[in-house]
Write a structure and sequence with these properties.
Strand order of the largest sheet: 6-3-2-7-8-9
Bound molecules: D-mannonic acid
Structural class: alpha/beta
Number of helices: 22
Number of strands: 13
Distance between the termini: 55 Å
Shape: globular
Radius of gyration: 23 Å
Helix content: 40-55%
Length: 489
């Protein structure tokens, strides 16, 4: 029998096994979030839903920068949705923290009204690495198409950078001087980079505003972590069974979740500290640990695993040779590339990451992780490589991760496979020129300066290591994984 649709009326039908915080249901809006993708709804929105049990109006106005899908689907269920924890002991929670979803291009006035309201104390973002419009040095890219557009069309900003600068101008004019803007994306120094980019954008048109932002607005750095595969029909069916209602856009994630936030706020915040969020003066050690150990091995496993014919993280890490390569890379190379926080047991953290990858209940597609390699590799692998080169530590296996990405590009070019990457045209056009002289092909791809800084692309040790990896992987296929991977170790 078809199940009734989830909404405020059918909530009473929820089985008692489904967790549901009642306080968040009544709360008014106090947060605006840009980018209501799966990760936000599985992470920050859940922490906020739980924190509202300790009071406060911290309802979320979610703003989609482009697509209408989430808004339209959630509108039919009054923005309620289910979080499914997919693990040994699955559990389900009904999230009511999101109060509305707006689409920037269609509801500009409402978006601006929310961003400039005195009752809005926090703006958070999950807009992916590419959404920050930064150049290879991590500074505002004034040649970026969206930034060029936004400078010419100040009334219709497309980028989050310009949208926030515009809203801050109105807040300045109205004397609303408290706001904290929290980046929740996988970028090193994410908050500091976001703050600098917004101030740089403001400086181009209004130096007073730029100064006001620097004095009044806080941009804490954060580390965010929870593996959140895309939602699919299998999940919808599973959730319908568990909650006995039809939820058209539930979210799934693993049980593990972590949020570390720099304790640097301009104004009030939800009781996040009471629901598992870590506040600290120094996020960078956590951030490096997570970006380099987890995201670095995720990307390496994605490109290597796809080449071996695997589809999911679990399939890839379950292969003994790939497990060995990833673990050796983490323990012998990545671990020594940065200073971890004193309180972090890095070996235990590495074992926990590999255990999380082995979660057979989660189908996390390698192809999803393979997106946006040009934006991800600098923070995930190239930073560790540069630091190890400077210290004379090994880079062999991290270079294999880079080589696997190069093969991913060449295969895509040769097979007309569409890749998801803001630099897709550039990457594929360069890869299409790769004619099979492997050493030349590597030099050609390493010359892509938007990804590989010249200092690295001209570092002979790095070039040799990537070329060796590329040569070895050129023979890799689903039938000879042990032989090829063992040869690299
Ligand atoms: C993944 C991340 O898709 C990817 O690039 O590496 O989304 C990863 O699952 C999260 O950062 C885990 O916190």
């Amino acid at each position: 029998m078809e199940k009734q649709r989830l909404n405020k009326q059918t909530l009473a039908l929820l089985p008692s096994s489904v967790i549901h915080n009642v306080s968040s249901a009544k709360a008014e809006i106090g947060i605006v979030h840009l980018g209501p993708g799966a990760f936000h709804r599985a992470h920050q929105a859940v922490y906020t839903d739980n924190a509202m049990e300790f009071g406060g109006n911290w309802g979320i106005c979610a703003v989609s920068m482009r697509s209408t899908g989430v808004r339209d689907e959630l509108a039919e269920q009054e923005n309620l949705y289910t979080l499914a924890i997919i693990d040994e002991n699955p559990s389900y929670q009904l999230i009511s923290a999101i109060k509305e979803v707006l689409v920037l291009g269609e509801q500009r006035q409402q978006v601006m009204a929310r961003l400039t309201a005195a009752t809005t104390h926090i703006v958070s973002l999950t807009i992916t690495e590419k959404g920050y419009c930064l150049d290879g040095k991590g500074l505002l890219d004034t040649a970026h198409a969206d930034i060029v557009h936004d400078l010419a069309n100040p009334a219709e900003p497309r980028s989050a950078i310009a949208l926030l600068a515009t809203a801050l101008k109105i807040r300045m004019q109205q004397g609303i001087d408290q706001l904290t803007i929290i980046s929740c994306d996988n970028l090193a120094d994410n908050g500091a980079k976001l703050g600098k980019a917004i101030v740089a954008f403001a400086t181009l048109s209004d130096k007073t505003l730029a100064e006001w932002i620097s004095l009044n607005v806080c941009f804490p750095n954060t580390m965010v972590d929870s593996i959140t595969p895309a939602s699919n029909d299998e999940l919808r069916a599973r959730v319908a069974e568990a909650i006995q209602l039809q939820d058209n856009w539930p979210i799934q994630r693993e049980a593990f979740t972590q949020w570390v936030i720099e304790d640097h706020f301009s104004g009030p915040r939800p009781a996040w500290d009471k629901v598992g969020v870590t506040f600290t003066q120094n996020v960078s050690g956590y951030e490096k640990a997570k970006l380099r150990l987890l995201n670095g091995s995720h990307s390496t496993l994605a490109y290597l695993g796809l080449r071996c014919g695997f589809e999911t993280v679990n399939e890839g890490i379950s292969h003994p040779a790939l497990f060995k390569l990833v673990k050796t890379m983490l323990v012998e190379e990545v671990k020594v590339s940065f200073n971890a926080p004193d309180e972090l047991d890095v070996d235990a953290y590495i074992d926990a990451i590999l255990k999380r990858y082995s979660n057979r209940h989660i189908r996390h597609l390698l192809s999803q992780i393979a997106w946006d390699g040009s934006q991800k590799l600098p923070f995930r692998l190239l930073g560790s490589i540069q630091d190890n080169l400077a210290k004379g530590n090994s880079i062999t296996l991290m270079a294999v991760g880079v080589a696997a990405w190069l093969h991913f590009l060449v295969t895509a070019a040769k097979t007309n496979l569409k890749i998801v990457d803001p630099l897709a045209d550039k990457l594929i056009s360069e890869a299409a020129y790769c004619a099979g002289n492997l050493a030349d092909d590597v030099l050609r791809l390493l010359a892509i300066s938007q990804v590989f800084p010249t200092t690295l692309a001209t570092n002979q040790h790095f070039v040799n290591a990537v070329t060796n990896g590329y040569l070895a992987l050129s023979n890799l296929n689903p039938t000879n994984i042990d032989e090829v991977i063992e040869g690299l170790l």
